[in-house]
Amino acid sequence: MEAGSAGPSSPRLTGVGGGVLLGGLTAAVSVTAIGRAWAACDTGNGAAANGMTLLFLTPLIWIAAAVPWIAVRSTLGRRHRKTAWAAGLVLTLWLAWFLVTWLGMPDSYPDPLCPGNVPPWWPGFLPA
Among 41, 43, 49, 51, which is least packed by CB within 10 angstroms? Predict the structure, then answer.
């Protein structure tokens, strides 16, 4: 290796690549949790209709989760990489929580299976 060469570069997630990857992971987790909440509380018109709704929502959630990662990594990540990761993680966790509690536990759908429209598996320390 020549003097002054940096050697092989380490793989890093760039703004767009990281946003697409982490946004897809967030979408998968959110859609799965929403589907589980709907199934536990018997929400909706049936498994086929709920599946189609979730299939339609998946790319929208993916985009909504990817955009903050791209913005944070492209702006804050240039100088403060750890802060950008922390901010992206906080935004992602908040978005996933918001989507699951807003879409997965609708207040307008009374159900005797889930008191307060909160599935039995939902952790008690998280607000719903």
Answer: 49
Statement: residue 43 has pLDDT above 50: yes
pLDDT for residue 118: 85
Which residue from 99, 121, 96, 97 is spatially nearest to 41, judged by alpha carbons?
121
- Pair 105, 37: CB distance under 8 Å: yes
CA distance 116 to 114: 6
Tokens (6 digits) for 122: 């939902």
For residues 121 and 128, what is the distance between their CA atoms, to the nearest angstrom?
12
Structure confidence at residue 8 as a pLDDT band (50, 70, 90): low
> What number is the average pLDDT over the span 51-66?
92
Q: Which of 27-36, 69-78, 110-119 has the highest mean pLDDT?
A: 27-36
Question: Do 102 and 113 form a contact (C-beta atoms < 8 A)?
Answer: no
Helix (H, G, I), strand (E, B) or coil at 4: coil
Is the alpha carbon torsion for 85, 62, 94, 35 positive or negative? negative
